[in-house]
Design brief:
With 139 residues, this protein is of the alpha+beta class. It has one domain. Strands 4-3-2-1-5 form a five-stranded mixed sheet. It is globular.
């Protein structure tokens, strides 16, 4: 494992629900995004597919955070990465996408308790779809 990416957390930014009613993801989902009425499991299910990130680097991350307008809404433990897989956009462009497999964390888990609700993540920018931030020691 490369020391360069050890100890990182994958951050995936969310948009308003429905983010894209014309979504063309691997599983055929037609919507994504975040809304206040959603629980963490639904947010994870709708938003773990059709993502642009480096699969090899993400596999080295223990956790993924889903953020909306800079605030962490969902914290999950990464159990695997699917992809990259090819998609064809409406304009005919071929692109690669990935998906996150994981377990959504809840209160009482040290990673959840540390990250959930935070809005002070280092080095994140909501104009990009994903980012990596340094992991922390939860003990």
């Amino acid at each position: 494992m490369s020391e360069e990416h050890r100890g990182e957390v994958l951050v995936l930014n969310l948009v308003d629900y429905p983010g894209n009613p014309e979504k063309n993801d691997y599983a055929g989902r037609l919507v994504n995004g975040w809304a206040p009425w959603m629980d963490d499991e639904l947010v994870f299910t709708l938003n773990r597919w059709d993502r642009r990130f480096n699969a090899e680097r993400a596999l080295k991350c223990e956790h993924v955070l889903f953020t909306y307008e800079g605030t962490v809404k969902v914290v999950a433990h990464i159990t695997g990465i699917f992809g990259p897989y090819p998609i064809t956009r409406d304009d005919g462009r071929e692109q690669s996408r990935c998906a996150v497999y994981g377990e959504v964390l809840t209160g009482g888990d040290p990673a959840y308790d540390y990250w959930h609700g935070r809005s002070d993540l280092p080095g994140t920018d909501n104009r990009i779809e994903y980012n990596y931030i340094p992991a922390v020691d939860y003990s």
